[in-house]
Amino acid sequence: MGQDINPPSDGQAPQRTFLCVVDETEELSQALRFACRRAVRTGGRVALLYVIQPAEFQHWASVGDLMREERRTEAEEMLQVVASVVQKRTKTMPALYIREGKIREELIKLIDEETDISVLVLGAATGEGPGPIVSYLVGKMAGRLRIPITIVPGSLSDEQVDAIT
Predict the structure, then answer these.
(1) How many C-beta neighbours within 10 Å does residue 52 have?
(2) How far apart are CA 114 and CA 62, in angstroms?
(3) Mean of the per-residue pLDDT values for the chain?
């Protein structure tokens, strides 16, 4: 189940769209900075995806519905905060996507459905390993995606990101 708040298709020629996955990891900051700078430099735009994890508690339908509503509200609030950062950096409102399900599956579905998305920008974790999404996409899915993946090291400084964009 997903909802696209403002998908990028507006009848105009497709732009290069840089997709970032919004979560609460530190590396989001550098991936977002990279995506915004590339979008500005190429006349493109940024798209943001937030995936709501399905509720594990399903004993009472009303409790599950309430939990789902709370997670949806949290997702919308977080997306609005991140979208305001994108708008300040790029002077355009990003495309916003909220999906519910497993992040890997929803990410792949969105990329397959939205042909305007042309680059996936992910931040690599600063701890042990690059992070579960990066590991999955680079390992099992790299040859199956229709778009390139840009992985931005989360340990880069703002100045380093600026220098490479």
Answers:
(1) 20
(2) 33
(3) 88
Quickly list DSSP for the chain. -EEESS-S-SSSPPPPEEEEE--S-TTHHHHHHHHHHHHHHHT-EEEEEEEEPPPS--SSHHHHHHHHHHHHHHHHHHHHHHHHHHHHHHSSPPEEEEEES-HHHHHHHHHHH-TTEEEEEEEEPSSSSS-HHHHHIIIIITTT-SS-EEEEETT--HHHHHHH-
Q: Which domains does the chain have, with CATH numbers?
A: 2-164 (3.40.50.620)
Torsional sign, CA 3, 16, 111, 132: negative
Summarised one tens digit per residue, pLDDT across range 133-164 is: 888 888 878 788 899 999 999 999 999 999 99
Its pTM stands at: 0.85
